[in-house]
């Protein structure tokens, strides 16, 4: 099953706001509907956002074929729908570069981005599983954060794809999914995907992660990224940094799995990245709140970055 695709002239997505209660497919016919789906996290996760950006430009190219000004505005709105994952603007720009060749060329480019993400997920699953086995030995116990499965990509996923591959190789002793406050991508989405894949797992509250590592119950942390900077800083769902600190203190690997489409060597470090502020409403019950959606894990806390083409041993001085 694909999280996002182009079907009969519209973008179809699995509505991730409805999971795990309901597996619902949304058909998006307009750029406005697509942007609303991105901003509500109906479609989310860096690789899926890259594909959404490209399909969004394909939608815009059809609707505004005779109005270049309106087309430009629509493309900019897509690029800016969420600021942190580099894939969104990158996917939109890549598709937009084909506009001079017509709407069908734009759609072909969007299909290419979709297919590259599918291939990248498969490559990362193998490369990452090899690395985890090398670093941790047979049958490690892993902790993951947010959702990095097929829902966040097109199929398979990034870090969760590695978990799936280790399970397939019978080289996995256990998985803890960190629940990922406030929108519960771990408790809702990762748990749903692991259950579908037949992988036993437990959910932990986010703040328990570092303690579980300190108590020797985790052999490695494995998670994804929304942007990887030139110096190796990793931007990912808020809470990742705490897990990196916990892993550092416990002396266990902290491994980041992301496609090359998430590596942004034009951004020197995490300090240059806009961290999305999703506002207080997702958090407030009894008081006002601050709600950064992502955080920055400094490169000196990262063991390795696994992409579809390479393993970057950040701990040994390698950089993207
Ligand atoms: C393969 S997805 C990697 C990241 O995009 C993921 O960990 C993440 O932080 C997603 O955040 P989200 O706000 O749910 O889009």
From TrEMBL:
GO terms for molecular function: S-methyl-5-thioribose-1-phosphate isomerase activity. It holds the Pfam family IF-2B. Keywords: Isomerase. Gene3D superfamilies: translation initiation factor eif-2b, domain 1 (1.20.120.420), Translation initiation factor eif-2b, domain 2 (3.40.50.10470). It is an enzyme of class 5 (isomerase). Its EC number is 5.3.1.23. It comes from the Bacteria. GO terms for biological process: L-methionine salvage from methylthioadenosine. Coiled coil: none annotated. Belongs to the eIF-2B alpha/beta/delta subunits family. This is S-methyl-5-thioribose-1-phosphate isomerase. The lineage of its organism: Bacteria, Bacillati, Actinomycetota, Actinomycetes, Micromonosporales.
